[in-house]
Amino acid sequence: MADLTRLSALDLAQGMAAGDYSSTEVTRAHLDRIAAVDERLNAFITVTADTALATAADVDRRRAAGEELPPLAGVPVTHKDLISTSGIPTTAGSRMLADFVPPYDATVYRKTQAAHMPLLGKTNLDEFAMGSTTEHSAFGRTLNPWDPARVPGGSSGGAAASVAAYEAPLSVGTDTGGSVRQPAAFTGTVGVKPTYGSVSRYGVIAMTSSMDQVGPVARTVADAAALHGVLAGHDRFDSTSLPEAVPDFTAAARAGAAAGLAGKRLGVIKQLQGEGWEPGVLAAFRAALDAAEAQGAEIVEVDLPALSYALDAYYLIMPSEVSSNLARYDGMRYGLRAEPESGTVTAETVMAATRAAGFGAEVKRRIILGTYALSAGYYDAYYGSAQKVRTLVQRDFARAFEAADALVSPTAPTTAYEFGAESADDPMALYLGDIATIPANLAGIPGMSLPAGLADGLPVGFQLLAPAREDARLYEVGAGLETALASAGAGPVLASAPEL
Amino acid sequence: MPEQSAITSEEVAHLAQLARIAMDDEELAALAGDLNHILGNVARVAEVATDDVPATSHPIALRNVMRPDTVGETLTAEQALSNAPADDEGKFLVPQILGEE
After folding, report:
1. Residue A126: CB partners within 8 Å, gap ≥ 6?
2. What is the value of pTM for the model shown?
3. Which interval of the chain is the signal sequence (chain B) (predicted)?
4. Which of A184, A350, B1, B25 would suit a FRET pair with A309, their CA atoms being 20 to 30 Å apart?
5. What is the ipTM metric for this complex?
């Protein structure tokens, strides 16, 4: 039998429906792969073999009984360890929640369960999703399958690495400032941040509530579309959930792959290139534009001057909301409780000792920065001004989408860098890596990163942005671009990845 | 713009107290440096945040989100207490909150 871990999710679904192999065989193949490589890679915080095999056995039994099953039934999936799974530890990559076992399911986990998708495990992340490298996890760093000396990106680094390393065909991550798209770019996978509010966040541990969004990671555009279709939809448990019906993303991907890019206007964002961007990244991006043009796309340049302030606004809004959201970790109702080493033991000293022991340095830095930005006398200048920049960014996007069907840029200014290369001495240098992904979160619009060739042997991410509620357009254009890149010899990128 | 005087370790100590995070002097000094550096970079948002620009709190705002007032599923007391560091008689047990009795 062919190596089942190398097949796409949609091929696996088709093979199971045709009776070529069972979900138990597919699930075992992935668990074996995890057992073989994850001790080194560390993409998983928790592997849930029993849960996965139980779901797989159930799918096989139902299929044998002739039951009609949803499209991805039997295809294994992983969830970022920020997503609550009842009875299964959910740590947020933090000492604070090292022993936390949720008493309820996040809606997105409930949905993959309802779709009969075996849960392989919970993937590693930067603590509370704060970081771009997956180094800030209390459970050790995840390595990039392309080069163990390099970061897999973050914060959904475990999700992206698990898919790139064939440990899982599909993975569910979260993206607040690029945390699905940037690791997808660094690992040669496809990652999508849906429209704000279009995927439920109920049961997803909150970081920045006005920007957090759950999204799929996959090896192909069509696979991402299929998982996105499972995840999306209104949820009465999430008050920011949009009421609109979910479009057929898989159909959009199929249409895009068939129709190509003829007549599609791609708007190259003027502000997301030039100085500070690696030449190899820009070369691969340009080559991808040429491949798109050769397939009939029209390339235009769009000017979004407010993007010059987007990073600054993000690094005020995000810590402000972090400081508020993480106030709940007080050692009283769940999570770690630590007592002060000396002095009186009161609720207040226990809270301070708990938060000192439970949070890592980056989380503390953001909480303190947010506490400052929200404090009396500074609120208007910092948080207030940042929210106004958000309006300007939205206006720029609205104008740009009049000239283009999708906006495009490299997903990140660099390819995956080496561990420790961006030193903790300069947090701003690391924050700059999010420059291309953050604007979509500020504006609430959907974005996709898909692999577009290599630079010095490492994958380069190509970002597509669409207007709010037009997520289907990402799949249409993305699948067209994926096809164009394959005909130009620049894909599939993962075929060039070294064996682990 | 607020005046850009450097944030001191004492001010960080106050912020840490507000945020309920115990910190030693070394951490406070390091954070003061980080905060000055980060705020020095991001304070330029005020340049374009003029009075005529409205603030956006949520990118896609919904108004008056309501649901029918019906009885639904909730966690049991046992489930709600299942992760409590300490509990007693169906309640969270917490350290002393007020001063000495």
Report:
1. A93, A132, A133, A134, A135, A136, A137, A154, A155, A157, A179, A362
2. 0.97
3. none
4. A184
5. 0.93
